[in-house]
Amino acid sequence: MLEDIRAYCRRDPALYGIKVAEVLLYPGLWALWGHRVAHLLNRAHIPFVPRFVSQLMRFLTGIEIHPGAVIGRRFFIDHGAGVVIGETARIGDDVTMYHQVTLGGRGWQRDAKGSRRHPEVGDRVTLGVGATVLGPVSIGDDAEIGALALVLADIPAGARVRAPAAETVPSTPQATPQATPNAGINSGARK
């Protein structure tokens, strides 16, 4: 637990001085500790209880980690709301994950029961806000997955993946309202 707290203090620039005590209020930390309990129960083949603990932590933190997922050391979830980690996901050491990240499957049509259907994330990987990684893909060590990226294939070690960034478009001049045949069309819509 101390190692987890140290990892949070090292990687969150908001924790400094007297604010360091706030680390104990971080939902990512609570979800991680809850997962460790659920994972031990799951490995002992105790039915129902691991999933109950997982769902309780989801209710309390907004972070859903399946008890079957394997998570390495010093895992850091920043903010955390909306994070989903699937049953067969594997996460290495020193991984950083921001809110709304999904490590999920491709759906019941593709995923056979009992097969590995979630991603494997290497050591020291960063997963940006809203990143979605689906299927039994591998993310290499030290890779950086940018915000809102959709990953459906393996990513080599050290790679940087970026989703298209928003672009600025010129604003249109204010048109004088007139009754025209195109009155229902949004003139400001992106072309």
TrEMBL record:
InterPro entries xref list: Hexapep_transf_CS, LbH_SAT, Ser_AcTrfase_N_sf, Ser_O-AcTrfase, Serine_acetyltransferase, Trimer_LpxA-like_sf
Catalytic activity, reaction form: L-serine + acetyl-CoA = O-acetyl-L-serine + CoA
Key words, A-Z: Acyltransferase, Amino-acid biosynthesis, Repeat, Transferase
Pathway(s) per entry: Amino-acid biosynthesis; L-cysteine biosynthesis; L-cysteine from L-serine: step 1/2
Keyword Transmembrane helix: no
Extent of Low complexity compositional bias: 172-181
Family statement drawn from the similarity comment of this UniProt entry: Belongs to the transferase hexapeptide repeat family.
Protein name in the entry: Serine acetyltransferase
Source organism of the structure: Actinoplanes sichuanensis
Gene that encodes it: epsC
